[in-house]
Amino acid sequence: MSTFIERIKERAKADKKKIILPESMDRRTFEAAEKILKENIADIIIIGTPEQIEANSKGLDISRATIIDPYKYEKTEEYINLFVELRKSKGLTYDEAKKTALGDYMYYACLMVKAGDADGVVSGACHSTANTLRPSLQIIKTKPGVKLVSAFFLMVVPNCEYGENGTFIFADSGLEQNPDPEKLAAIAACSAETFELLVEKKAIVAMLSHSTKGSAKHADVDKVVEATAICKKDNPGLLVDGELQLDAAIVPEVAESKAPGSSVAGRANVLIFPDLDAGNIGYKLVQRLAKAEAYGPVTQGIAMPINDLSRGCTADDIVGVVAITCVQAQGK
C-alpha cells in the first residue's frame, strides 16, 4: 500500500465524515465497510433491507455501521418530498419520486446528502457510471462556478521518478467522451485544484496530444492548443502547457529537446488527455503494466463528493475511494 493512500487515510481520520455505501446487494461493500470501520477512516451508512444486509454481510463485523432500511426509516417521507421539490420543474410526482428513491438506493443516498444527513457517497461496484452520476446531477448538481463534471484517476506508480514521486492525476479518464476546447480547459483547471487538495503539492498540468509544439498538424492537435490557451487565460496562476506528447510532458531529457523553455514539460504531474478513449486506455496501461494503484474514477465538479467505482474494483479499492471522498468533503 502506497504512502500516498496512507496519508489520505490519516487526513480522513483527523476529521471523520459520514459516507454512504448504497450497494448493499454487493459483498464488497461490506468487506470495505468492515475495514473502514476497523481503521476508523469514516462513519459508514449502508442502505438496504434487513434481508439484503444479512445475505451479503455474513461473517463480517459491520456492527458500527449505520444501517438504514429506506422502507422503514423515519426520514424517508422527508426525502421523497425533497425529491419532488427539487424536480417539480420536470413534473416529478410524489408517486414517481417514491418509486425511484426506494427502487434505486443511489437516489436515496443523494437525497440523504442533499438533506445534510451525510457528507458523500461511493457507489459503482455493481452499477454503471451513468447509474451513479445521473442521480447526483439531478439532486446535488454541479458546484457553483464549475462548467462541467469530470472524472479522474489518481495514479500511484511504484518506483517512479516522474510526476510527484510517481503520483499523478489522469483526466478525464471516466466520463467526458470528447470534450471541446472549453471543456478540456475546464477539466484541466478542476484537475489541478483536485491534485493540490489531495496530494498537497503544486499542480503542473500537461495538455497531452500525439504532437509536441506543432510537430504534427491535425484538428485534434488544434483542439488541445486552443484548450491550453483558454486554460491559461482563465487561470493565470496555473502552471499549464501544451500541446505535449506524454514523454515530453514527464521526462526531463525529452522535454529539453522537444519543448525547450516550457515551464511544464518534463515535470508534469497532472495529465489531461484529449478524449475519453486516450484517458481510459492510458490509465489501464499504467495500472496493468506498471502495477500502479489506480483510485477512481473519482468525480470532480459536483457540489458534494459523489464517487464512482470501477465495476472490477476490490474491497481495498473501495476503502481508498472512501478515504479520498472524506478528504474531498473536508475541502468543502
Record the strand order, biggest sheet.
8-7-9-6-5-10
The backbone outline, from C-alpha atoms, is globular
SSE string, helices as H and strands as E: HEHEHEHHHEHEEHEHEHHEHEEH
Give the helix/strand class: alpha/beta
For this structure, the CATH topology of the largest domain is: Rossmann fold
Which CATH top level class of the largest domain fits?
Answer: Alpha Beta
CATH architecture of the largest domain: 3-Layer(aba) Sandwich
Largest sheet: 6 strands, mixed
Return residue spans where pLDDT drops below 50 for at least 5 consecutive residues: none
Number of helices: 13
Q: What is the count of distinct domains?
A: 2
Query: What is the residue-mean pLDDT, rounded to a whole number?
Result: 93
| Gyration radius from CA atoms, angstroms | 21 Å
The fraction of residues assigned to DSSP E strands is 15-25%
Distance between the termini: 27 Å
Number of strands: 11
Topology record:
Layout lengths: L2 H12 L3 E4 L5 H13 L3 E5 L2 H7 L9 E3 L7 H11 L7 H10 L1 H10 L5 E4 L5 H11 L10 E7 L10 E5 L9 H19 L4 E5 L10 H16 L4 E6 L1 H5 L1 H7 L11 E3 L3 H14 L3 E8 L5 E3 L6 H16 L2
Parallel strand pairs: 1-2, 1-4, 2-3, 4-11, 6-9, 7-8, 7-9
Antiparallel strand pairs: 5-6, 5-10
Tell me about this structure.
By secondary structure, this protein is an alpha/beta fold. It has two domains: 3-141 and 302-330, Rossmann fold, CATH 3.40.50; 150-289, Rossmann fold. The protein has helices spanning 3-14, 27-39, 50-56, 76-86, 94-103, 105-114, 129-139, 181-199, 219-234, 246-250, 252-258, 276-289, 315-330; strands spanning 18-21, 43-47, 66-68, 120-123, 150-156, 167-171, 204-208, 239-244, 270-272, 293-300, 306-308. Helix 3 links the parallel strand 2 (43-47) and strand 3. Helix 2 packs across helix 13, helix 4 (76-86) packs across helix 5 (94-103) and helix 6 runs parallel beside helix 7 (129-139). The protein is globular, with a radius of gyration of 21 Å.
